[in-house]
Write a structure and sequence with these properties.
- By secondary structure, this protein is an alpha/beta fold.
- Helices cover 33% and strands 16% of the residues.
- The chain has four helices and four strands, in the order αβαβαβαβ.
- It has helices spanning 12-21, 33-38, 52-59, 75-86; strands at residues 26-29, 45-46, 67-71, 92-97.
- It has a four-stranded parallel beta sheet, with helices on both faces.
- The longest helix is centred in the last third of the chain and has 12 residues, at 75-86.
């Protein structure tokens, strides 16, 4: 209930380890479609920030699921995490930006 006391940020090292060990974690990339195509973290789903309000509950109906959010630098991810918490998501974390992700990107 007092989720505001819990940090919404997670180090990329810890996020990488958790993603490797827990396949149930949802990874959302809130960059534009073109940015996503230029390179994204394996397993990420692209939901651009400007479409988040329309697509969020359809794509992520379980508001208690563990969700990691990423963008280019962490700023849009922060906005997305704040919004998601406001609408009832309980286990959502900003893992920063792909610009500093040192564990490899998928390019399409």
């Amino acid at each position: 209930m007092f989720n505001f006391l819990k940090s919404s940020n997670l180090s990329q090292k810890q996020a990488h380890e958790e993603l490797a060990n827990d396949k149930s974690i949802k990874l959302i990339d809130v960059r534009t479609r073109d940015e996503f195509r230029d390179g994204h973290i394996a397993g990420a789903v692209n939901i651009p920030l400007d479409t988040l309000t329309e697509r969020l509950e359809k794509n992520l109906p379980d508001k208690d699921a563990k969700i990691f959010v990423v963008c280019l630098s962490g700023s849009r991810a922060s906005n997305a995490v704040s919004y998601m918490k406001r609408v009832g998501y309980t286990n959502v974390f900003n893992i920063g930006g792909v610009s500093t992700w040192s564990f490899g990107l998928v390019r399409k």
